[in-house]
Structure formats: C-alpha cells, structure tokens
Write a structure and sequence with these properties.
Number of domains: 2
Order of helices and strands: EHEHEHEHEHHEEEEEHEEEEEH
Oligomer: single chain
Helix content: 25-40%
Largest sheet: 5 strands, parallel
Distance between the termini: 59 Å
C-alpha cells in the first residue's frame, strides 16, 4: 500500500524538524515536501496531489484561508499548526481534520494520523481523486453544451455557461461571477484559457483581466479617457479599455 503523502508548510525549522521526525516513525506516512513560503502551498498541493497538508495558519492572512481551502485538491485534508489556541474554532470551521499546538510530540502527531486514517476509511467510497481528475479535465477544451467544473469551498460545483455573466482574471486564477450569487467563485485557470472555452457562449474580452457575456450588457457609455463604461443587467459596472475597442462591434451586433 502506498504511503499517505504529507506537505509541511511552516516558518520554523525547529518545528519542521520535530514533525519530520514523528512522520519518519510512522510507516503509513511520508513527507513529500516542506515549504516556508505561503505562495508555494497551493501549487505544491496540486502538483504532488498530497493527502495531508500541515500548515501554520500564520503564513496566510485570515481572509486568504478560505481561498487556500478552495484551491487545493478536494482530497487533500488540512491540519492547522498554531501557537494561538484561540484559532482552534476557526480552524475547525474551515474544515480542518485537526488543530495542533506545540510541542509537536510523536504522541500528538500519531493522534492526528489516527484521525486522518479514520476519516480516510469513512470516505473511502467517495472517489476524491476521481473527482479531482474531473477538475483537471475541466482545464481541457469543452464542447459548447458542457458545463464548467470548479471546486468551491471544498465542494464540486457544475456551473452552466448561462449562469455566468462575467469573469475576472488574476494570474493563474479567475473569479467567476454568477447571475444569482453575490460572491464570485475562485477557479484555478487562466483568463485566456477561459476565453477559449467561453467564446462560443457569447463571451468577449473587454479588458486584459475581464471577460463579459454580451447578452449581460445593458448599457455602454464612453468616458473622458477614451475607454467605455459597461453597465450589466445585474447593475455591475465594468471598463472596456481602449485596447479592446475593436470588440465594440461584437457588443453592438
């Protein structure tokens, strides 16, 4: 049987060494990678498909923790490390399998591993890694009538293109804005790739970081800077930059 892979994200080398020694004593677990950098955590989890992430919450801003949860693989469980006992409630609210305060003794790490293994056994009928494969497949070109598959706060969501009104981009991620929901959904995909998928559904690029569905546009107004202000049917306002003026013809058609 393959060992469960563990990622340790912690700023203290002393604590990392302590955890490492405990992991080495358990035949069911192995450390896949160690990082001190919060910016690496999401990519490391996705690249290694780790089973368990041990992460010190202080590496992240509090408001960024739900984003972390939503962007790591759905089968990757999280145990938070902390020097602050008051964070425990929030940790479990975020769906953590455990919450650890130092010292990280072998006995305490073994207790965590026992919790993880029991949880894994209880969920063995639920194909987390198969669902993750669906998420990875969602990065491939889709037919017009296929939906977008995204992970949202630990859930798998299947979103019809008709539900989406505009998409904002930031690096390797996009925010998907839906007609009936105030909160956008964060999705790991580039804006260019999303445009390839969504162009056939009536989406055009109006800014280097914005796609919009033509049918969702209510009003177009020129601005003094030479750009345009688009008002959507849900009341949102978006800028159409001069660089994408050529797309005005698509909007008006």
């Amino acid at each position: 049987m393959a060992k469960f892979s563990v990622i340790i994200a912690e700023s203290s080398n002393v604590k990392i060494d302590s955890i490492n020694q405990c992991v080495k004593q358990d035949n069911d677990f192995e450390v896949a990678v160690v990082t001190h950098n919060a910016n690496e955590v999401i990519d490391l989890c996705n690249n290694t498909q780790a089973d368990l992430l041990l992460v010190n919450h202080s590496l992240f801003e509090t408001q960024d923790l739900p984003i972390l949860i939503s962007l790591i693989p759905i089968h990757t469980k999280i145990a938070f490390l902390s020097d602050d006992a008051s964070f425990a409630i929030e940790a479990f609210d975020l769906g953590a399998v455990d919450f650890l305060l130092p010292p990280f003794t072998e006995q305490r790490i073994n207790k965590l591993f026992d919790k993880f293994k029991k949880l894994h056994q209880n969920q063995s009928a639920y194909p987390f890694k198969q669902i993750q494969a669906l998420l990875n497949k969602s990065h491939e070109p889709q037919n017009n009538n296929e939906s977008i598959i995204v992970k949202d706060s630990g859930r798998i969501r299947i979103i019809d293109a008709d539900e989406i009104i505009w998409i904002g981009g930031a690096g390797n991620y996009v925010e998907i804005h839906l007609a009936q929901e105030a909160r956008p959904i964060l999705h790991r995909e580039t804006l260019s790739t999303m445009l390839e998928k969504m162009a056939s559904h009536g989406f055009i690029r109006i800014h280097r970081s914005t796609l919009v569905k033509k049918r969702s546009i209510k009003e177009v107004q020129p601005t003094e800077s030479g750009d345009y202000l688009l008002t959507l049917k849900n009341g949102a306002n978006l800028n159409l930059s001069r660089r994408y003026k050529q797309n005005m013809a698509e909007i008006l058609n």
